[in-house]
Specification:
Length: 419
């Protein structure tokens, strides 16, 4: 016998021996499905299979209507009827109660609800009626409120929620507390300068309102273009209490850092009466674009093949209402520095016309109480044009335009009579 055959025989013997040792613990099969089971070295006991338990859950009874949705003003009430039908085989003692709706922050106050009768017996198959009254307090904040009316204590074992419920949804009108001169500030500003804005606020409620204005960022992505680079240095000054009917000023100071670039976007939350804003007080949107004055002019070269006169126009547009709430520094009018060269030699340009035009509305966007002189007309777009003429000549030209106090501009070069 070869050495490899001998090793193989020994290995097979050891495997058989190992199986004999482990067989009682791992390979024994019961002789019967029920009762005791014997194997060579002992007895298995209590191996009778357990009966399968089926959880049918609580009985779902019939509730009609299953939901109620209404819009109720402060100080008003609403009434409706709801029926409960016992779909089970046992008599039930029904005691309706208010339970909260999961995963909501606007649960309806239990004190608003009255249910009559407070309890009632329902036999199997029997239907009972209940009268429900909803009364909204006069000083309640506006919003959407929710609740369940639970007619039994049955709980769904999987969700741990009441099963036999009716859903209530009540909308309460949002009554304005404060009115603002404007609900946004949008401006182009320069790095290193300090800007001051003032917004008038009127309390239109019938009672005093407290405010605590805070700068807040929008819950959106903030990248290299939209950023809140200097929200921590903006200062807000306003009275903490505004009396009913009173008009006050709120000032916003914006010291722009020297290294600020891009666009800042955020808003001022007024935090009225120390509560979550229910919409009765508008927020003030903020949008500041930090501009940089260009260091060199824009250069345009062109060529002429006739001696016709040359007309050059530069123009720009500005946007925003006249009553932009900026107090300082005063907004400067746009302007241009133009230089022209003909065959590399400077040429004098004659300014022949400046034109200003615009669009005007009747002031619908500004409340009348916020206008010091009751002026209703507001200009929201201005178009500015400068027109120059130059005697024509054949050759090469170079026009340089250096803009001031403007973000964009346009130009036109007309050869010949521009009329």
């Amino acid at each position: 016998m070869s050495k490899s055959t001998s090793l193989k025989t020994i290995f097979q013997f050891l495997c058989v021996l190992l199986c004999l040792v482990l067989m009682p613990a791992t390979f024994a099969q019961p002789e019967e499905l029920n009762g005791n089971v014997t194997y060579e070295n002992g007895t298995y006991e209590n191996v009778t299979p357990e009966s399968e338990v089926i959880n049918e859950g609580p009985i779902v009874h019939e509730i009609n209507p299953s939901s109620y949705d209404n819009y109720i003003q402060q100080g008003k009430s609403s009434n409706f009827n709801v029926s409960f039908k016992n779909n089970g085989n046992e008599t039930l003692d029904i005691k309706p109660k208010i339970v909260p709706v999961p995963y909501t922050n606007s649960n309806l106050n239990e004190s608003w609800i009255t249910i009559s009768p407070t309890n009632m017996t329902a036999n199997p198959g029997e239907e009972q009626n209940f009268a429900v009254g909803i009364n909204v307090p006069e000083d309640e904040d506006g919003g959407r409120y929710e609740a369940y009316i639970s007619f039994t204590d049955d709980i769904d074992p999987y969700t741990a929620q009441y099963v036999n419920v009716m859903y209530l949804s009540i909308g309460v009108p949002i009554i304005p507390k404060l009115e603002l001169q404007t609900d946004y500030i949008s401006d182009t500003i320069e790095a290193g300068k300090e800007y001051e804005y003032a917004i008038k606020i009127k309390n239109v409620a019938d009672k005093d309102v407290t405010i605590d204005p805070k700068i807040t960022n929008y819950n959106i992505y903030i990248d290299s273009f939209y950023r809140s680079a200097f929200n921590d240095v903006i200062e807000i000054s306003a009275p903490s209490i505004i009396k009913a009917g009173e008009i006050v000023n709120m000032s916003i100071c914006v010291p722009v850092p020297e290294n600020a670039t891009g666009t800042y976007s955020g808003y001022i939350e007024m935090n009225p009466d120390g509560k979550v804003n229910d919409g009765s007080v508008p927020q003030i949107g903020l949008s500041f674009k930090v501009k940089r004055q260009p260091a060199v002019p824009y250069v345009k070269t062109f060529n002429t093949v006739t001696t016709d006169p040359i007309t050059i126009e530069v123009s720009t547009d500005t946007y925003g209402l006249d009553m932009l709430p900026r107090i300082s520094p005063k907004k400067e009018e746009p302007s241009f520095e133009l230089n022209l060269k003909y065959n590399s030699s400077p040429v004098n340009m004659t300014l022949v016309k400046t034109t200003q035009s615009g669009n005007v509305d009747n002031g619908y966007s500004i409340p009348i109480w916020a206008m010091d002189d009751n002026t209703t007309y507001q200009s929201y777009n201005k178009h500015y044009v400068e027109t120059y003429t130059i005697p024509g000549a054949i050759g090469d030209w170079e026009l340089s335009i250096f803009p001031k106090n403007t973000e964009t501009f346009g130009y036109s070069i007309v050869l010949g009579d521009s009329k």
